[in-house]
Structure formats: C-alpha cells, structure tokens
Write a structure and sequence with these properties.
432 residues, mainly alpha, Growth Hormone, Chain: A, 15 helices
Length: 432
C-alpha cells in the first residue's frame, strides 16, 4: 500500500463519507470564525491595545507549539473519529462557559485568554486527526483536489464569516454570537456519527499507551522530519515566515480603528476580501494544478502573500480600498503556498505516522510566532502599526529568495526516503 490510500481498497461511497465529514467540519469552522471575529473585535474596542491582541494570539499559539507533537502521537494510536468528537465537544463546552460569563456581565480579559487556550488545545488534537484521516478516506490521486477544496471552503468562510460576525454583533449580544458556535459544533459532531473513519493499524490501542511510548512517538515525529532534509529546511524557513506574518493578523483590527478610523464592518470587508482571494486562488490552483514541482508553486505563493502585506502596509488612511486590494492578493496566493505543500506531505508520508508528522510540522512552523507576538505588540504600540507590515514583507521576500537557491529545498520531492511506518504495538518506538 502506498503512503496515501489505495483507491482499489476504498469503499465505493468514499465521496459520500468524505462529504459528510467535510460539511460538518465546515459548519464547525464557520462557528469558530464567528467566535474569533467577535472576541477580537471585543478586545479591540475594549482595550485598544496591540499588546493585548498579540498576547491573545500568543495564548492561542502555546498549545499548537508545545502540545501538538504529543497530540499527534496520541492521534496515531487512538481512534481518530473519537478524537475529533471529543475535541469539538470540549471546544463547545468552553465556549458555552464564556457565553455564560458574557451573559452575566462578568467576563474579564483573562477569561478570553483561557477560552482561546482551550480552543487551541482542542484544535491541536482535531487538526492532525482530520488531516491524517483524509489520506485514508481519499484516493491519492485526489489529494491535490481535496487540498484545493479545503482551501476554498476556508476562503468562503472568510468571505461570509466576518460580515456575518459584524451583522450578528449589531443584532445580538456577545453571548448570543458565542452560543451559535455551540450549534455549529453539534452539527460537526453529529456528522461524524454517520460515517466510518478508516483507522491505521495501531489505532484504537489506547490500552497500550504509556508516557514513555508517547515521548518515543514524539521523538519519531521530529526524527522523521529531520531526516527528510528538504522538509526540515523548509520548516525552518516557514517558521521564520510565520514570525513575520502572524502579527499582521493580530494587529489588523487596530489598523482598522487607529489608521482607517473604521469599525467592525471595515474589518469584515478586509477579511472578506481575503476570503474572496482564497476562493479565487483555490479555484485557480484546482484548475491549473501548479508547477511541476510543488515546492516552486508554494514559494511563489509566499511571494504573493508578502506583496499583499506590503500593499496593506503602504495604504494611506484615505485609501482603504488599497488595503482591501492587498488583502485580496494575500488571500489569492495563500492556496498556492499551502495547498501543494499539504498535498506533498499527504502523498509521501505513510498514514500510520501522519498524526505525528502533521502535528510536529504544526509545532515547528509555529514556534517562531511566540517571540513575534512578544515583540510586535511593543513595536506597534511604540513606533506604529505600519512598521511591522514593512518588516514582514521584507523578511518574507528574503527568506523565499534564500530557500529558492538551496538544493535541499529544490529537491524535496526527490530526496524523501520512504521511512518505516508502523510502530511496534508492544511498546517499542518506530526507529529511523
């Protein structure tokens, strides 16, 4: 069997099964989009502090950076369907508590931080479980199209979510917006009960899990990536790209209020422009397929993101439309940056270890966002929000140029060596 699913052993109704799960997760993502928009706008109007906003994103990052590798190790040994159900349920429960705090008018900033941490913790399990399941639910030849489809739905949600969030904030109290997320989570959980999620050989062996095995599995994920030289170098580059790009998202609400003198609708317009770009880019990627070498498509996409960031940073206060165009360009090129890279990993890595590999990738790609959040808020509050957008664009351009000339990056699709995939269920870690 190849690393991805063999179409000859998939059930004939694989499209139906995948579509049910996909629709359920789309509703969950919509609810998450509404919650994120509402909480960010509440913090912006309540505090007006760049440090508060970057701290909120920092709190959200911590589980992804430090706990994702452990979550991935567990995902590879546990029933992935149950992992997704429990993750969504925990996130919904935390959102319910936050909604009640808003209803009682007892909410404080630290409550928001706790909610964001719990939501991120649930995502640390849910994301690798879902991504690792896709390669067993979908034929290998369809992985590229599914990657484009996933990018497209995120783009649609970016179009619909922010304006819908702004509308709901004008019609409902804050707790009303949060309670909607509970309903969308229920849809996602319900959808999972109607499908069979294929499991790798060692899934469902929870009784055999020990702390030592988890630590060994975490080490496996890091060794796997380190020995795939092209992937290791790319992840180092991506971590620095995220160092530059991540704060621009956290600072966007203050750019709207302080620079453009806008409101929630202006923030919604920017987010929707980004979403429209993602949809158009996803459709373009699906139709074109990208360059022969997937990594070239990804690097070109990152250059487009950097260009869009620079345009947003250069937009004068009276040229809000220029910022809208910059956000649209960023969205347009995101699928070209992410889609081919994810398809490459799904096609090369064995399903039995994808939970560990995906979660380790998430951790390594995000680690540099922590120092970025610690310093970008100070820079924005001290010398201006625009400054970080210029720093971000210049840093991304430089890193892409550097990666483009590195042999390990150019040959990533050739220098991958098929790794031993199956863990010893008696407790021995997989060795590389």
């Amino acid at each position: 069997m190849t690393p991805a699913a063999d179409s000859s052993i998939l059930p004939q109704n694989w499209k139906k099964n995948f579509l049910i799960v996909w629709i359920g997760q789309a509703f969950s993502l919509l609810g998450s989009s509404l919650v994120s928009f509402a909480l960010v706008w509440w913090m912006t109007t309540t505090t007006g502090s760049a440090v508060i906003l970057t701290t909120a994103m920092l709190v959200s990052l911590l589980p992804e950076v430090f706990l994702s590798p452990f979550a991935g190790a567990l995902v590879d040994r546990l029933n992935r369907k149950k992992v997704m159900i429990i993750s969504d349920a925990c996130i919904a429960a935390a959102t319910l508590v936050m909604g009640l705090l808003f209803w009682l008018d007892a909410v404080q900033i630290w409550h928001v931080y706790v909610l964001l941490f719990i939501r991120s913790l649930g995502g640390a399990f849910q994301w690798p479980a879902m991504n690792a399941s896709i390669s067993l639910m979908v034929p290998e030849k369809e992985l590229g199209r599914i990657a484009g489809l996933n990018q497209a739905i995120r783009g649609v949600l970016n179009i619909v979510g922010p304006p819908l969030g702004a509308l709901l904030l004008s019609l409902l109290p804050m707790f009303g917006v949060l309670f909607i997320d509970i309903g969308t989570a229920a849809i996602a959980i319900g959808a999972l009960f109607f499908v069979i999620i294929p499991q790798p050989a060692q899934a469902g062996m929870a009784a055999l899990i020990t702390p030592r095995q988890v630590l060994e599995d975490v080490g496996f994920g890091f060794r796997y990536i380190y020995r795939w030289k092209g992937l290791f170098v790319i992840l180092i580059g991506i971590s620095f790209i995220n160092f530059f790009l991540a704060p621009t998202s956290a600072l966007m609400p203050l750019l709207v209020t302080n620079h453009f003198q806008g409101n929630a609708w202006h923030l919604g317009i920017l987010d929707s422009a980004f979403g429209i770009g993602v949809v158009v880019g996803s459709l373009g990627l699906t139709a074109w397929g990208g360059f022969k070498k997937k990594i070239i498509t990804s690097l070109a996409g990152i250059l487009g993101i950097a260009a869009g960031t620079l345009i947003v940073g250069l937009a004068p206060a009276s040229w809000f439309i220029m910022a809208v165009a910059g956000m649209a360009l960023m969205g347009l090129t995101i699928p070209f940056a992410n889609g081919p890279f994810h398809a490459l990993i799904q096609s090369k890595v064995a399903p039995e270890v994808q939970g560990r590999v995906f979660s380790t990738i998430a951790s390594m790609a995000s680690v540099m966002q922590i120092p970025a959040m610690l310093i970008s808020g100070q820079i924005a509050d001290g010398i201006g929000i625009h400054t970080w957008y210029f720093i971000s664009a210049a840093g991304c351009f430089a890193i892409v140029v550097l990666m483009r000339v590195m042999p390990a990056v150019k040959q990533i699709e050739e220098n991958h060596v098929v790794q031993p995939a199956v863990s010893n269920l008696a407790g021995n870690s997989p060795t590389l």
